[in-house]
Amino acid sequence: MYFLETKEAAQVYNVSEGALRLAVTRKSNKYEWLKVDNANGGRGGKKLLFKISKEQILTAINQELISKNTLIFNEKMQKVDLNDISNSNTICIIKEKDLDLTESKINNDLAVLNLKFENLNDEIKQEAKEKLKLIKQIEKYIEGGLTLKRALFLCNVEWRNYSNWRSNYKKYGILGLVDTRGLHRKDKTKLSAWMQEYALREYRTFGAGGFNFTELWWQIHKEAAQKESYDFIGFDLGEVKPLFSVKTLQNFIKNYYKDKPLEHCIITQGLDRAKSKFLPAQGNQRELYDMKNMCWQIDSSPADVIVRDDET
């Protein structure tokens, strides 16, 4: 066990110094403390020290509640160097550059998805990196002397999640931390490659206003008669089953533009509206005026026009 002075102990216990002194006055059992001779003088020539565990000291330093230069005393009232408690390299916060993002050999379930970490979208990759960062941080805390329970509490991670993440990471590398739920359905569509290109071309051309998906659905089936020898006449008479539904076509367009809001805005609302919504303001005009109605903004397009009346 170790001891800290009142000021530092208050930071560790997250209370005021007055609360600690009051607990001593009332002889409370909430905190363990002792008084020792104070060579520099003080209240009655005594110094008040509070008992702190190794785990609490390491936690406080990791959370920057106390500095590494804080005076720490052992039970013999001898000053203790922090390096004697724990090596300094174990007291650190894991950074992304320290993460190992290699991909181990994956099992059949993951192989079916044909996963490559660099090909995943940024959101999924960032989520996997955050899990790996938590695993490494918990391991660092444990190396620094904290218990697993305390390390999990500091990182706000449940033991079950930590156990699963750690096991999957050892088996499959960074891919083991990827949330694969729904990935086998992501971006899947019944539309063949040429149908997708045709649909996107038509939508980009006529997407402004109310777009007629039923008309596009009919046109694709007509085009299929030439490209795939599809029985379009039978389809038009209702005797042949359609290649896909109108809803399938709508879902394809919706999913394609889900992460392309700028392009979708240009198609459906025009370039001027897209500039207004997505381009940042052209500088700070506040410095030009210091009174209400002194300066009026006429337009919010990239070529902002500002009218300034110097006479008034």
Sketch the topology as an H/E string, one letter per element.
EHHEEHHHHHHHHHHHHEE
- Any idea how many domains? 4
Sheet of most strands = 3 strands, antiparallel
Fraction of residues in helices? 40-55%
Silhouette = elongated
Multimeric state: single chain
Describe the structure.
With 312 residues, the chain is mainly alpha-helical. It has 4 domains: 2-87; 96-177, no CATH class; 193-275, no CATH class; 284-312, no CATH class. Helix content is 45%, strand content 7%. The chain has 14 helices and 5 strands. It has helices spanning 6-13, 17-25, 54-62, 82-85, 108-112, 122-143, 148-155, 159-172, 193-206, 213-227, 232-236, 246-256, 261-269, 271-278, and strands at 2-5, 33-37, 46-52, 295-297, 306-308. Strands 1-3-2 form a 3-stranded antiparallel beta sheet. It has a two-stranded antiparallel sheet with strand order 4-5. α13 packs antiparallel against α14 (271-278).
Question: Brief description of this entry?
Answer:
The chain has helices at 6-13, 17-25, 54-62, 82-85, 108-112, 122-143, 148-155, 159-172, 193-206, 213-227, 232-236, 246-256, 261-269, 271-278; strands at residues 2-5, 33-37, 46-52, 295-297, 306-308.
Keywords, separated by commas or semicolons:
mainly alpha, three-stranded antiparallel β-sheet, two-stranded antiparallel sheet, 14 helices, 5 strands, Integrase, coiled coil
What is the topology?
Layout: E1 2-5, H1 6-13, H2 17-25, E2 33-37, E3 46-52, H3 54-62, H4 82-85, H5 108-112, H6 122-143, H7 148-155, H8 159-172, H9 193-206, H10 213-227, H11 232-236, H12 246-256, H13 261-269, H14 271-278, E4 295-297, E5 306-308
Antiparallel strand pairs: 1-3, 2-3, 4-5
